[in-house]
Write a structure and sequence with these properties.
It is a single chain. By secondary structure, the protein is mostly helical. It is 62% helix and 8% strand. The chain contains 8 helices and 5 strands; from the N terminus they run αββααβββααααα. The chain has a 3-stranded mixed beta sheet, with helices on both faces. It has a two-stranded antiparallel ribbon with strand order 1-2. The longest helix is centred in the C-terminal third of the chain and has 41 residues. It is globular. The N terminus is likely disordered.
């Protein structure tokens, strides 16, 4: 099936104009939306979230998140030039989650401390979320959605003269294919990439990367009943742990160098 030339050509131009290289992994990614626009939207959304959701007042939890987050952000340096790092703890003991937004806005729910019991384990969480910002995964996800919409418009146009049943079948196939063959696999890829980059950032900050293994084993115990990987936006805990084992030699080397640096010996 041939898509109308204008839409395909426009999609190609947008793709070529918006490529960038992800730090640490070297992967080529797309970003079709100006980072300044995304950052402005994220700042407004984060502010609204702080007004609508309960912010935790526990001084110990807040101090831990601020300390660990700032330490990792220092290692990131100017990898996110316009970042105004902000770390907020939200009070929800049932929410085993954390998130990040463009511009350096990071939230951690109190439920996450059921899994992140030490500073080293918390650094795994904070490193992962900060890595999402550095890799510009939010921008890439929105850009991919835009590309899918452009292609869907092309499919819709190309099937205008077809019988209704055929047209519906083609559009349904496109929708399923783009979701399960493109969007969900990318979401899992971005999570793996954030695990990779975040582990290195945590290690460079002087946090023991081996804590990632205990953290994800605990997350596995706390998060039983996950959907099958094919239907999930995240890789399985087993696959995450396998990746962490592969990265551990490099992360441990970074950790040892960080300890020397922090102790003033090198």
């Amino acid at each position: 099936m041939r898509f109308p030339i204008p839409i395909s050509f426009t999609s190609l131009l947008l793709f070529l104009a918006g490529c960038y290289t992800v730090p640490e992994t070297g992967r080529t990614a797309i970003s079709l939306i100006p980072e300044s626009q995304l950052t402005s939207m994220a700042v407004a959304s984060f502010q609204k979230l702080k007004e609508e959701e309960k912010v935790a007042r526990d001084p110990a939890l807040n101090e831990r998140v601020q300390r660990v987050g700032r330490r990792i952000a220092e290692v990131v340096g100017d990898a996110v030039p316009a970042a105004d790092w902000e770390f907020v703890v939200f009070a929800d003991d049932e929410m085993l989650n954390a998130f990040a937004m463009p511009g350096g806005k990071v939230g951690v729910y109190t439920g996450m401390f059921r899994a992140a019991r030490t500073d080293d384990e918390l650094a795994v969480v904070m490193g992962h979320e900060i890595a999402h910002v550095v890799a510009r995964h939010g921008s890439e996800r929105l850009s991919q959605g835009l590309l899918v919409e452009l292609l869907q418009a092309g499919v819709d146009k190309a099937t205008e003269g077809a019988e209704e049943d055929t047209r519906r079948a083609v559009l349904t196939a496109f929708g399923l294919g783009s979701t399960f063959g493109y969007l969900l696999p990318f979401s899992r890829l971005s999570e793996k990439e954030a695990d990779h980059i975040g582990l290195l950032y945590a290690a460079r900050s002087g946090y023991d990367p081996r804590a990632a293994l205990t953290f994800w084993n605990r997350m596995d115990e706390l998060g039983k009943g996950e959907p099958p990987v094919y239907f999930s936006t995240h890789p399985s805990h087993d696959r995450r742990i396998d990746l962490l084992h592969e990265l551990m030699p490099q992360a441990l080397d970074e950790y040892r160098q960080a300890l020397k640096r922090l102790s003033g010996k090198g």
